[in-house]
Amino acid sequence: MLIARLQGTSLIDLPGSVSCVIYTQGCNLSCEYCHNPGLMSMGNDASGVLWQDVVRFLQMRAGFLDAVVFSGGEPTLHSDLPEKIEIVRSMGFLAGVHTNGFAIPDADYLLLSHATPEKTEIAKKKTERLALSVVRKNARGEWQNFITEV
Q1: Where are the domains of the chain?
Q2: Would you tell me how many other CB atoms lie within 10 Å of the CB of residue 6?
Q3: Cis peptide preceding 26, ω within 30 of 0
Q4: Which has the higher per-residue pLDDT, 123 or 28?
Q5: Model confidence pLDDT, tens digit, residues 59-69
Q6: Which helix (H) or strand (E) holds 55?
């Protein structure tokens, strides 16, 4: 996983939780309105954050942080995302993923954009497979949440 940066504290990226955000490098889209345009290319930037530094950071913040959110760029482009999610969960943190939904791999883990801890627990109980919360615009241009289980 190419990690561009680590935001130490967020109160908005996983509602109801104190989280940190891991911003991954690379995206499969080129949206004009992207708020992280510097993360679009998959360039191997040596100034990025090493995974072992993220783990050390999480060990130091145990008891303060509730969750770790993987964002980007597009985190589902990274084949080791399921492994990183499992590591985060084994450390006692909730895991969230912000995704555009176009690059979701065929994997047995949860991808919940705009997930709350309650939704994550419900989804874990409902399915062992992929549960995805997609937020998109409807025909009237209004944002709607569409829950899909595969």
Answers
A1: 3-108
A2: 16
A3: no
A4: 28
A5: 999 999 999 99
A6: helix 51-61
